[in-house]
Amino acid sequence: MSFEEMWAALLPVGRDEATGGYHRFAWTPPELECRAWFLDEARRRDLDVEHDPNGNMIAWWLPEDGSRGDAVLTGSHLDSVPGGGAFDGPLGIVSAFAAVDLLRERGAGPRRPIGIAAFAEEEGARFGVACLGSRLLAGAIDPARARGLTDADGHTFAEVMHNAGFDPEAIGPDDDLLGRVGCLVELHVEQGRALREPVGVASAIVPHGRWRFDFAGEGNHAGTTRLPDRRDPMLPFAAMVIAAREAAERNGTVATVGKVRVVPGGVNAIASSVTGWLDARGPEDKAVRRTVAEIDEAARVAARPHRVSVDLAEESYSEIVDFNHALRDRIGATLGGVPVLPTGAGHDAGVLSARLPTAMLFVRNPTGVSHAPAEYAEPADCLAGVEALTAVLDELACS
Ligand code: GLV
Ligand code: MN
Ligand code: MN
Ligand code: MN
């Protein structure tokens, strides 16, 4: 299967024809179809598939001597955000299979194992914590907390893992697997307007996190409840959304409320509770923390006159990632003068940088749009990405 054929096979999976957006949430039918596709592609190439206890999959191309240590890992993720683009995640995996094909065509064989990883629940779109599979693998989240995470229907991560054939008690750090990996190079579509050439190398991921604001008031009738009698949680929620924009402007950060749950959600009912999820990111930790503190304060001030309670919970936080300099320099030397750029997007390579030397290759995105259907990469740039990844794997694992 060529790059184009693999891409064409994945393209319809989980796609909403009306919007062109993808809905591939961890362990839902479209994501399971992507996993089956991954296993087929691995089988087609005679790669050994390893399933770790956390739902991550790795397709291994082993050296002739069968050695398993000091591996070079590549790959990305197959899940998507709600209504996401086609490239975020799958591009790294399709490119990795295509790179293995090119290495074989060119007669190169690995002296270190090459692993193509598909990390589970990278977007956190189902259970709320981004990069859940790599966080568990790296020991960056308490397994007990992960087991108790719930999806929108109230199913726990433990339940879903059990139904998918995993032992929920076994999730957590896999030091045996990590001990066999020497480095990780993740290829990914660039997610903003920062890359002007076909391929670039990542320097850093900015600090970012997710917070949940719960506003609790009193459900009541929209027609019969006098204004002074209302305890409407929608009002401080709305103030919180505006405060997020203003705090981001003051602090040089970005802050987004992209998801809200209104209970019970009737047109003719004052909500009893509103939950809003805040995503905040910025160039440095302090500015992000200050942004969230200011939004929290504004939400509380706005809630008081309405006798609404406010509860703030941090769902995940990732400190700045400064990708491994030696690996980045070696990749830069291999590719010869490609741009080096930071990103505001989170990645499994960022989470795993706490345990391994990691690096990322970016492929240009001409629309500058991501996490939305307009996300794009030109076919020629995708092929440039495959060539770059091939050269990097050749350099790190074959020569
Ligand atoms: C994941 O892609 C994120 O950056 O939120
Ligand atoms: Mn993403
Ligand atoms: Mn991604
Ligand atoms: Mn991401």
Automatic annotation (TrEMBL):
InterPro entries: Amidase_Cbmase (IPR010158), Bact_exopeptidase_dim_dom (IPR036264), Peptidase_M20 (IPR002933). Allantoate binds at R210, N268, R281. Its cofactor is Zn(2+). The keyword Metal-binding applies. One of its GO terms (molecular function) is metal ion binding. Coiled coil: none annotated. Keywords: Hydrolase, Metal-binding, Zinc. Gene3D superfamilies: 3.30.70.360, Zn peptidases. Zn(2+) 1 binds at H77, D88, H188. Binds 2 Zn(2+) ions per subunit. Pfam families: Peptidase_M20 (PF01546). Zn(2+) 2 binds at D88, E123, H371. Belongs to the peptidase M20 family. NCBIfam families: hydantase, PRK09290.1-4. This is Allantoate amidohydrolase. It comes from Actinomadura soli.
